[in-house]
Amino acid sequence: MTTEIHPSGGTNRLFGILTALACFLLGAIALYSSGIGLIEPKFHRAAGFGLALMVGIGVSRAKREANGPLTSAQNSFHLIVDVVMLAAGLWAIWSFHFVQNQMETALYDVTNSDAWPALAGLAVFLELCRRLWGWGLFGVGTFGVLYLLYGQDLPGIMAHSGFSLKEVAEALWYNTNKGVFGSITNIVLSTVFIFIVFGVLLEGTGAGDTLLKFAFLATRRTRGGPAHAAILASSMFGTMSGSTVANIVGTGTFTIPMIKKRGFSPTFSAGIEATASSGGQIMPPIMGAAALVMADLTGVGYLNIIVAALFPALFYYFSLFAAVTVEARRQGIEVQPLSVDDQITRTDMINSILFLGPIATIIGCLIAGYSTSAAGFYAVVILLALSAINPDVRADPMRLWRSFLKGSQSGATLLIAIAAIGILVGSLDSTGLGLKLANVIATVRGESLFSALLVAMAGALILGMGMPTLPAYLIIILVMGPAIQQLGVSMLTAHMFVFYYGVASSLTPPVAIAAYAAAPIAGANPLMTAFMSFRLGMAKFIIPFVFAFYPTILIIEEFSLLPFLWIVVRTCFCIWLFSSALSAYDRRKLPIPEVVIRFITAFTMLALSPAIHLPAIALGIALIVWDVRQTKRLPIATETPS
Fold first, then answer.
1. Rounded CA gap, 27 and 40, in Å?
2. Per residue in 219-237, pLDDT tens?
3. DSSP string, 531-589
4. Which of 65, 481, 564, 605 is the most exposed place for a label (fewest CB within 10 A)?
5. In the chain, domain spans
């Protein structure tokens, strides 16, 4: 989530300069710490949040200015508030650094006077979170603070023993394991930040345009054409951008008009782009930086994470390809030749190195045993070196500088969100609420793993609704993770399960942020687009259950070749039947009884017992054969309705 800064007037120009300087320093720190040398941890976290504070205030001022002109009195009021916030925030960050130094050099305990800068810091970062990320994350962080302060008066399992102001400050501010400056902040600063910068730089060098052309070339012989190209491009673009909305803006402004031109409805055009863009974050190798956080939280190697994520992601994109194919058949859309603009040129072939080179560098570094952050550093170095091959970069070298600052700005705004997540972490950890909720879910679920996963899915979708993927994933795993692991599934499976629903929450009405971003580009109704995205992305709700019951899909856990191949075939068949049932169309319009039978057959063929899934597979094959035979009997004029 980024906002371009256009300073006007002396004060805004000053804030613009400070913001750009803070972005540069943040980016420089990320480069240094990932590839050159270590930075003392408490200073790294304090400096990171201090610079993020400056960037956050600058970005929020730019957003306010973009919403329309303000009166002189309003400008003065906002200036006073922003200066007070900056001063209070820096005071609080200095206090954190001072107290940490004292703890290292002497037997120091947090005092009552230390509580006031901590509370000021919490208030400042929560307000910044509200400005930049909306009320959802603000509410999450505020709940964490208020729950510590007043939770002792709540009934039932919500009650705790009570915390003084000093204890709240110690739990949420002066703590390097949890709270604002906790371990999640360390992961973002030391590992994730460099990949955010890398993703934006990759886009700025022109790699995204080249990806689109190759996607169009690869799908030129399909009925869906640009719709299939949007799926392919979004899977590649989204894995590096880390933002569903950025992915939609980056690829959708080009693909959505072309999907409409092919003959698809505006609602479908926006829906398929929103669904494909949200899926970019489950596609290896980068997965929008979430894989990096997951690797640190689970202790599973990053390479293992991306291997585990591969087949679930391929299933998801297969479901989207199937949905587009079925829709193209339903609307009678045929294969069309490439236009001149879609042809791959010599420049495109050369520019493909901009994408392939850095990705190969990341994978090569990881295989060679380098740390994840070092792999990101060398990928940035290789990308900057290769960018000179693009004529557009040679004509305008400053685009690299702008991309570097934009990437740092994205990282800074993410840090503001992580502050709210850190507050929730500190609150849950200090009160034990997460474990209490896990016990409640365990009671509700009874002895059924399936019913327990349904409860976890519903909770994950609600917790993640309206939030960016990484904060959504972190909140869900904090609240739901212990409960899911109590079901007997592994830690990695639990993390993958909730991560998928963190991504899926961006498609779930009524707060389907991906659909609302895509709808205006297509000129479609946002709510109808949300329901279309939900339907098209329905496979994302099924796939986590597949790898929860069949962990061999994740390859690195309980892998066995024949069971793996068997569940892959069954899942693909299930997805096809499911997609055609949702559209009520395969090679012809499906009557209601066939739609119902396809739904039932699709689900039962994933059952654990061969006595259930083998007859379901036989019935599924019979349904396909019946559809082919019935289609042949149709008059030619009605085979492909317009």
1. 17
2. 777 777 778 887 887 777 6
3. HHHHHHTTHHHHHHHHHHH-GGGGSSSS--HHHHHHHHHHHHHHHHHHHHHHHTBSSSB
4. 564
5. 9-180, 186-424, 566-642
Question: What is the C-alpha separation between 501 and 364, in angstroms, rounded?
Answer: 30
Contact 587, 631 (CB under 8 A): yes
* Residue keyed to tokens 């299930």: 574
Closest CA to 602 of 626, 576, 625: 576
Contact at 8 Å (CB) between 61 and 131? no
Grade residue 238 by pLDDT with cuts at 50, 70 and 90: low
Q: Give pLDDT tens digits for 66-85.
A: 777 777 888 888 889 999 99
> How many whole angstroms from its chain centre is CA 62?
25
pLDDT per residue as tens digits for the range 482-530: 777 777 788 899 888 888 887 887 777 766 777 877 887 888 887 788 8
Measured CA angle at 170 (ends 53, 184), to 5 deg: 55
Q: What amino acid is encoded at 563 in this protein?
A: P
Pairwise CA distance, residues 504 & 327, whole Å = 22
Q: Is the dihedral of CA 8, 12, 15, 19 positive or negative?
A: negative
Residues in the chain: 642
